[in-house]
User: Fold this.
Amino acid sequence: MGIVLFIIIFSVVVVAHEFGHFIIAKANGIHVVEFSVGMGPCLLSFVRGGTKYALRLLPIGGACLFEGEDGLNQADETDGKEEKTSSRQETAASEAMVADTQLGARSGAFPSAPVFARIATVVAGPFFNFILAFLFSVMIVGSYGTDMPIIQQVSEDGAAYQAGLRAGDEVVALDGRKIHLYRQISLHSMLNKGEEIQVTYRRDGQEYETIVTPIYSSEAGRYYMGLYGVGEYQKKDIIGTMRYSFYEVGYWIQTTIKSLELLVQGQVSRDDVSGPVGMAQTVTQIYDQSKPDGIYYIWLNMLNFAILLSANLGVLNLLPFPALDGGRLVFLLVEAVRGKPVPPEKEGLVHMIGMVCLMLLMVFVLYNDLAKIF
Assistant:
């Protein structure tokens, strides 16, 4: 059951991402050659409005292909009817010349759209992931509430107690950064390497400041503030629900960025990295743990995982890496500044190298997932 739930969640997240590209491309007059869910062999497809809609075998991705993108044209991506029915016998040289002149100039082709229309189309995918995460957050916060940054327990021999913090205090800011969720306190504490933490807190309507110096635990191998619990969950009115849903998405975006920083710094081991197989296992564990509490809690926990996955996908796709949306965005921004595009053959080569690297990474992640299982 967990695998089925993961496929459903992952497919919804991917569809939201590709739909973002699709709807903004359509709004800017860019012709979408194919909108597909999944990868690999095509299971089902139909053509409407000049766009092929396809469901493919492997539920591990999706695609929104534009005419003229990376040398793609409508005749290449549809069923090739034009080539089969054409009675003209052109030489290879003339075909190449027509392709070169029409690729960028053809109405509806991606390269012929204004640069800022292309930028909006590329950014729309990750942006729609953030929108989806926000909508799911509204469902959770509206039905269950959110974890307010109110201290539940303080260890009497811990750093927070020594600094004057007590149960019932509401943390307002850490090191000058506003705090809205208790999980932000936990994340800040987990990432601390022994530095002093400036804590702004509210007690009986008055704000105070103190300095907490986390204490190192040799057993856990990290520094602790000495706070326990998960925060006080509170339900909000409509405006509060919208506001805290925004904070919820911001928290997951922040968590993803911090995780990437730790990965680059070499502070994350291979056991901490998971791909589709590992995420499917995680969903199965969440389902098994939630099942005794009933379908309502299964639903909430699946939504919570979907928020994490959608925010994660949005952030990762904005990374300035070739073949990702962020990599394409870099070339478009360069074009906007220079006033002319980077030569297509050079950009295509960069994206091809990036795609090869991504494929190798996917193979490594899959191997890593399977190695952890077996």
The CA atoms of residues 32 and 371 lie 39 Å apart. The radius of gyration is 25 Å. The first helix runs from residue 2 to 27.
